[in-house]
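Deliverable D4.2, example record:
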Amino acid sequence: MIPARSLPHFLANKSRIRVFGLDFDDCIRVFFGGNAVISIIVLALITYFLFREGAGFFGQNYRNLAVYRQAGLEYVDYLRAQQDDHTALTRYLSDLRVRQFASDLRQKMSPAEANAALAGFDDFAGKFSDTVEPLRTLVSDLTEQASAIKTKFTVMEDKQEERRQLLAEGKSAEAAKVVIQPVDFAAELKPITGTLPAYRETNSEFARQVERVLAQAPALATADLQARLDRFKQLTRAYLAGFPAIVARLEAWDYTKPVPRRQAFTSFLFGREWLTASFWQDWYGILPLLAGSIMVSLVALLLSVPLAVGAAVYVNQFATRAEQRFIKPCIEFISAFPSVVLGFFGIAVLGQALRSVSQVSWLSWIPGFPYSERLNILTAGCLLALIAIPTIFTLAEDALNNVPRAFTEASFALGATRLQTVVRIIVPASLSGIISAVLLGLGRVIGETMVVLLCAGNRIAIPDFTAGLAVIAQPVHTMTGIIAQEMGEVVQGGIHYRALFVVGLVLFFLSVGINYVAQRIVRRYRISIG
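Output generated by the structure prediction step:
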């Protein structure tokens, strides 16, 4: 340490001190400026790591899509889609039966009487369900054949990789023992494409049976239910009208037609399915994960922004010193809670409490109430709002503090009240800083992992936005949640492994973009205030 009596002499001669050719002032600048350099280096390393690990995904995804076509899975999926559409129509009938049963119970029928009254409808629904059996049998056989072709191809690829590894290790003799038999797709696909004449006949009979069953549809008791049954008939006839298009696609299908390179990108960016470890075909579409992340984050912001900004305005402009000393530490202490603890709280307490509240009869006017899913967008959004409040509160209060005191004094001099000054002068003057606080809060919640993994419901599907505001009662999965959930189960270097890194890359650039916009707003705010 430098003695106190020698400090003036040291400061007077500090420019003479040199370390590695740098004087004292240069050393100070290097020391404190090193934080920025380290941040840039870390950012570059993270970006490089994500790009390195995820770079091979699109090539692997392209091969995945090419095999999907070459092995005949695409061909069979045309028929599977036709079968699935029939299943959806059958579910429509099941929902109609539930509605009719509930209507009969409201008419003071006993459950036995209601079931007896629905005997004709049940017979109709059963016949409609059975019409698809010939198609289902054909699809089942073709599914086994196409799956076997893909499995054979995958085994051969594994053997090629095994041979490459043995050759790389210098084990030529062992590599020569690995037998690789190329898959002749033309020969393998003949049993599948050869079923087209049989499918045409099956399809024609299928359409005739459905028409016959529709003609036997019973009349329902109420006008609303009858309208729903008429709608079912319209949907079914539209379904039958699509049969010729399916036949045309099967006739035009060619396994040798190359898959467009761009499809490896578009299937990821706009794909509606994230399906892994499937016996049939894996799909890597980020859209449901992105939609889940955005929905949960929006709910969190809708809850946190009014609370955090309102608290910041009150503490900064209205609270006494005693209130400030109490409120500020309490809000900032929220950030000390580990996110996994908040997640457990959501599972054990909040999720059940919100579901119980939704069951209250006089709250049934709220969109989505009552709901049965304990873990959903609302539960995760409430907890993420709690996480975002300290960030938004602290930054918003800083923005309010940076408003020049002259603005407030001028407002009071003109006779404005405290409330008028806050609403018309201080908040508008600090609006850019408040917006940047909100954006940084968004960046904080969109990157949260444990809360959404534990409390969002983890259903990989795009929310049903036709439900309106009731969409917040639906379970979703998020980008951060899928990475945390699946990274421990993947094979390093595989397509699933690389797909998760590409999801991480999207999340990384999304967070960086949000923070960049927030920083730009902060700079503009400071310049305007200056």
